[in-house]
TrEMBL record:
This is Endonuclease/exonuclease/phosphatase domain-containing protein. It comes from the Eukaryota.
Amino acid sequence: MCPNVPSSQVDFTYVNSATGAKFVLDHFIVSHNVFNGVSRYVVLHDGDNLSDHHPVQLELCIDVEYSTCCKAQPSPRPAWHRAGELHLQRYREHLQNELLMRVEILTEALACRTFNCSDHLDDLKVYYAAFMKALASSANACIPAWKKKAMAGWSEHVADWKEKAIFWHSMWLSGGQVHGGWLHAIMLETRAEYKRVSRWVVRNQEKLVAGCMADTLCENRSRDLWSEIKQEKDSNCRQSNVINGAVGSHDSCQVFNETYKSLYQSVPSSESELNILYEELKAGIRDKCQSGAC
Ligand SMILES: [Zn+2]
């Protein structure tokens, strides 16, 4: 408990207003690894505090690593299924220009046949990055992007009321914006209903999305079902910024790189090791067969 820390300046945290008796009733409780990091522990005897308990304040001085949970950057994704012949033609031309302008053909590196050649590795990385950039920028420039899907239930429940509200509002405007009277009453009524229904749809998104999924399942529209699921998944997509102590996307990639490298190399691959394994297996099979246990 924090009153035991050397830097504690807490005299009392509670005063009985009838008797004037003072006690230390309010505490911070911290774990052992934080205990030594308490740099200041005080009580605030403020004049404007109407409670008979006084607030305690704790300051910590410990090294922490921030784990910012960043949302995946929404980048415009090309919707290839929406691309027509004209889009594809423009894409081909754009890509051709991009490749000519930005990608240098590294003849020597591309012709090199040395496996895992370290001399050309950096060149090939640059070449690959330039190639991918050309593909991405051409697709962004020429292929229609994915449209943000409207809220579930919006077209069924809200669209009509929105149209009505806009219509009666424009009627009321063109009628001279008279307050009172039937036109004003209809305008207010349709607007109120539009507002009510749109709020209901926003509040009930989860149920409406689940309903859409159930409908697509019942009607056996598997393609629509997967697009609904994908949308649900995308909306909750978050990326951790810290993995195994590595901070940021670059360092996190290195962690995966190292892990997979050691994973793939955990199986013996040298000829001598494989020969030993082969002999062991052969001896095992022979023993089993000779003893009739095969
Ligand atoms: Zn090489």
